[in-house]
């Protein structure tokens, strides 16, 4: 039988792979460490991914089904002992399983909001494992046996991860009832509820956790994430409400009940957006001010980049991501009205820096566009309460302009942004501002021209290269080192020579028919290597070599001389597509007598300066 990767097998069986790979890791460890599963089913034990024999399909399905119910079984007698394997195979009716099963059922029925499917799943599973039948988890499908129980055929299958969440939730709630003042249990309960997509219940648990521990930064981060999602939904609803009046705001003189309803809906959605936004800003600030600390010393404090890096936390929220959304949702009114303390916000911003320099922090978790938006917003905020920080940000922004870290189009958009253009003008002065603006406009024009040149060059290469396909195949066969089959005659140099000659003539005719296009690509020489697309350089070198073979015209000679003057130019001109082609043409020149008026490229370059000849020999290997 064949083999299959564990990840693919889990997906094939319908078990979703969560981002944390909990299911995958659990099954992998059992297969590698328990019983003789590795010897029987694992094809290769060298790193990832884990490759299994097809016979492992039923075993893997059963391991997934058993995962939420592992606490029903006692621990194994040794490191390699897998207790469910022996208990089910031997048909064990021990008191431990029945006692645990009774506790499971009791806890499930005590929790009224538990999913009915999870309860039905538990009933079917317990019916199978307590029936006394002998079950070999390597050959007998537990899930198939569960379908044979009363109501099992109609029951909807749950993912074991979801079932495990319900079980863990029940245990945490039982522990919380015994320790009602423990905020950690509340937060863990909220994590499981959110994983089960029970958002409102999760938010309620978070609020109870924060009442017990107001400085729990992780709980605040979880609340901020929920409120941000609510804000996004509220903004969509506000957009829909505004669209009912073509985004013209309120209906000035409403008459019908529908028009009154539209006005009420616009007000209602606006209030919801504002309320959710302010709640999010407060939660995000509290979270970031109380974020889990990685280490701290006299010089600086280093924070965990993700909440999941902190102990006892399974929720992963990025600190930089949360700060970005805080800044995007923060308003000047929030700062003026004290929703956010100015100094606290400034300290929070500085906490992302690795030193006291005035440079903008490095936000590696954000995309380039997000960082640009963040810079603009921070320049505006710093202009309100820290002029020195604002000047540092403007100085760095201008430095990025001059070094052209971003595209000219993006730089021009930033430079002309209505929110910061006045500040940039004051900082740079009118002359410098105008100079930068003009340079970006010119760069955009040149970029558009290069796009057009690249397009034409690709058209030429698409037309010319296929001409040489047959000759190249003959050349590669003739020059290869491995044996040729007896029934495949090896082409002779003479055959290749005639083939190349025909191709060169055909290529010349094709280039003549495309002369207008080629002229638009190469208007004049010399060209700057860094100002023209590589495809255009490729066309120039290929065209010069082909034309020089047939006519030895002066313009082709100048082009070849120009390319030979720079290893970088030759590197850009000789790409993977035409390297064999150039060598084939050189071999053709060596094997054929050319008219006296046609100078061989090798001899031509040797007549030039010795340095250029060495460059050519090194880069073209002539």
Protein described:
It is a single chain. The protein has 622 residues and is an all-alpha fold. The chain has 3 domains: 3-164, no CATH class; 179-321, no CATH class; 449-620, no CATH class. The protein is 64% helix and 3% strand. It contains 30 helices and 5 strands. The strands form 2 sheets. A 3-stranded antiparallel sheet has the order 1-3-2. Strands 4-5 form a two-stranded antiparallel sheet. Strand 2 (42-44) and strand 3 (51-53) form a beta hairpin. Helix 10 (183-195) runs antiparallel to helix 11 (199-212), helix 17 packs antiparallel against helix 18 and helix 19 runs antiparallel to helix 21.
Number of helices: 30
Q: Which oligomeric form is depicted?
A: single chain
Shape: extended
| Secondary-structure-derived class | mainly alpha
In this structure, how is the largest beta sheet organized?
Answer: 3 strands, antiparallel
Number of strands: 5
Mean pLDDT: 78
**Helicity, as a percent range:** 55-70%
Integer-rounded radius of gyration = 36 Å
How far apart are the first and last residues' alpha carbons, in Å? Answer: 53 Å
Low-confidence stretches: 481-486, 594-613, 615-622
Give the strand content.
Answer: under 5%
- Spatial arrangement of strands, main beta sheet: 1-3-2
Question: What's the domain count?
Answer: 3
């Amino acid at each position: 039988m064949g083999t299959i990767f564990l990840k693919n097998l889990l997906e094939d069986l319908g078990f979703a792979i969560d981002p944390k790979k909990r299911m995958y890791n659990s099954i992998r460890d059992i297969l590698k460490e328990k019983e003789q599963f590795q010897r029987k089913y694992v094809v290769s034990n060298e790193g990832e991914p884990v490759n299994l024999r097809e016979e492992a399909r039923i075993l893997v399905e059963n391991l997934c089904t058993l995962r939420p119910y592992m606490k029903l079984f006692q621990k194994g007698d040794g490191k390699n002992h897998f207790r469910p394997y022996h208990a089910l195979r031997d048909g064990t009716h021990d008191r431990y399983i029945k006692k645990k099963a009774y506790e499971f059922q009791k806890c499930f029925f005590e929790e009224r909001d538990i999913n009915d499917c999870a309860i039905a799943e538990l009933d079917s599973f317990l019916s199978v494992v307590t029936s006394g039948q002998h079950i070999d988890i390597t050959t007998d499908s537990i899930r198939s046996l569960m379908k044979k129980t009363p109501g099992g055929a109609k029951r909807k299958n749950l993912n074991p991860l979801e079932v495990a969440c319900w079980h863990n939730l029940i245990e945490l709630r039982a522990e919380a009832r015994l320790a009602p003042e423990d905020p950690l249990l509340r937060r863990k309960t909220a994590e499981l509820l959110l994983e089960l997509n029970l958002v409102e219940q999760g938010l309620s648990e978070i609020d109870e956790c924060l009442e017990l521990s107001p400085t729990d930064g992780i709980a605040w981060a979880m609340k901020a994430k929920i409120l941000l999602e609510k804000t996004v939904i509220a903004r969509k609803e506000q957009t829909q409400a505004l669209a009912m009046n073509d985004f013209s705001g309120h209906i000035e003189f409403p008459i019908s009940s529908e028009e009154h309803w539209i006005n009420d809906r616009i007000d209602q959605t606006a209030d919801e957006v504002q309320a959710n936004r302010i709640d999010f800003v407060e939660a995000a600030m509290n979270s970031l001010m109380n974020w889990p600390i990685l280490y701290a010393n006299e010089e600086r404090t280093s924070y965990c980049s993700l909440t999941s890096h902190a102990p006892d936390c399974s929720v992963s929220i990025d600190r930089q991501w949360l700060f970005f959304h805080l800044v995007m949702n923060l308003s000047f009114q929030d700062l003026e009205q004290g929703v956010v303390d100015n100094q606290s916000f400034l300290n929070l911003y500085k906490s992302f820096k690795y030193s006291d320099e005035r440079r903008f922090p490095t936000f590696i978790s954000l995309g380039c566009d997000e960082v640009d938006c963040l810079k603009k917003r921070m320049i505006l905020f710093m202009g309100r309460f820290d002029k020195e920080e604002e000047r540092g940000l403007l100085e760095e922004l201008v430095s990025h302009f001059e070094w052209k870290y971003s595209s000219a189009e993006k730089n021009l958009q930033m430079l002309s942004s209505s929110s910061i253009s006045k500040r940039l003008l004051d900082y740079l002065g009118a002359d410098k501002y105008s100079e930068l603006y003009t340079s970006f406009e010119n760069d955009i024009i040149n970029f558009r021209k290069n796009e057009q040149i690249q397009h034409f060059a690709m058209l030429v290469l698409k037309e010319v290269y296929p001409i040489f396909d047959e000759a190249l195949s003959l050349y590669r066969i003739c020059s290869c080192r491995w044996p040729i089959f007896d029934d495949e005659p090896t082409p002779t140099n003479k055959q290749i020579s005639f083939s190349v000659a025909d191709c060169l003539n055909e290529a010349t005719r094709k280039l003549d028919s495309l002369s207008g296009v080629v002229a638009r690509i190469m208007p004049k020489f010399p060209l700057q290597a860094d100002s023209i697309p590589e495809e255009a350089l490729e066309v120039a070198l290929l065209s010069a070599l082909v034309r020089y073979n047939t006519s030895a015209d002066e313009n082709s000679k100048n082009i070849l001389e120009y390319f030979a003057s720079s290893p970088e130019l030759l590197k850009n001109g000789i790409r993977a597509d035409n390297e064999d082609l150039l060598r084939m043409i050189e071999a053709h020149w060596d094997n054929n007598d050319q008219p006296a008026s046609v100078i061989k490229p090798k001899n031509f370059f040797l007549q030039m300066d010795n340095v250029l000849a060495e460059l050519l020999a090194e880069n073209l290997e002539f």
